[in-house]
Amino acid sequence: MTATTLCRAWLIQRADGFRLGFTDHDTSLRFDGTEFRPDHGMSARALVQGSGLAVDNSEAEGALSDEAITERDLMAGRWDRASLNMWEVDWTDPVRRKLIFSGGLGEVTRSGGAFRAELRGLSEALNMPQGRVYHPRCSARLGDRSCGLDLADAAFCHEPVVEGLENGVRFRFSRFGAFDAGWFERGSLLVLDGAAQGLHGAIKNDVALPNGGREIELWQELGILPQTGDRLRLIAGCDKRAETCREKFGNFVNFRGFPHLPGEDWLMAPGAGGRHG
């Protein structure tokens, strides 16, 4: 390749299959059936790549655009875990190109109408813990394959509509299903329609009100506030304890913890060697 005719092109694909092509060249490029457009204001910092198993490290940044990467999509998590490939391309002949990065998007931050996304290489997965963790509490996530619980069951979810919202984090409902107080604490809230559709938050408190109503408080305000009449889905919370799995969810057969594992205080007690052998 000739250095004076080199540019970069990168392809981002979301988990739902939506694809976008970008380039830092001043005109569009096309290869592999994708158009790489320059008009989204996206650029990438110099790539840092280590030898061996070192983690590749870089960032992509650009302006938020209604046609490309929108603030609402970012806040809704639609770009989370999107895959990314980056090439060096001879813009005079796109057939002459070299793949220099393959990985995905990591942490995405937003400020002043722009975004910045961390790029994570394929070796990032080598930093993840492997195998099971031996701990009294469950290692599964509620509703995942290990847990096996069907969160669509009416006993574990509720779909009210927004009636009132205070300080962006407290939702109040005048009527609520027959759920015990605290049923949704440590659970999650998902917005099903409206401008905030797809946004989700972690539930901090679930308080039964004296008049039969309910107050659901989130740990953090949603990026776009739901409006009165928008539908929500509340998912029950799990504190990972064996008692909760057995009594609240009736799912102890799938419990992925070790509730009878001795604690550190028991193992380290003076004279434990003789008494605990």
Summary?
By secondary structure, the chain is mostly beta strands.
3D architecture notes:
InterPro entries: Phage_phiJL001_Gp84 (IPR011928), Phage_phiJL001_Gp84_C (IPR018964). Residues 182-265 form the Bacteriophage phiJL001 Gp84 C-terminal domain. The protein has 277 residues and is mostly beta strands. It has two domains: 3-124, Pnp Oxidase, Chain A; 157-235, Thrombin, subunit H. It is 7% helix and 33% strand. It is built from four helices and 16 strands. It has a nine-stranded mixed β-sheet with strand order 3-4-2-1-7-8-9-6-5, with no helix packed on it. A seven-stranded antiparallel β-sheet has the order 10-16-13-14-15-12-11, with no helix packed on it. Strand 14 (200-208) and strand 15 (214-218) form a beta hairpin. The longest helix is centred in the last third of the chain and has 6 residues, at 242-247.
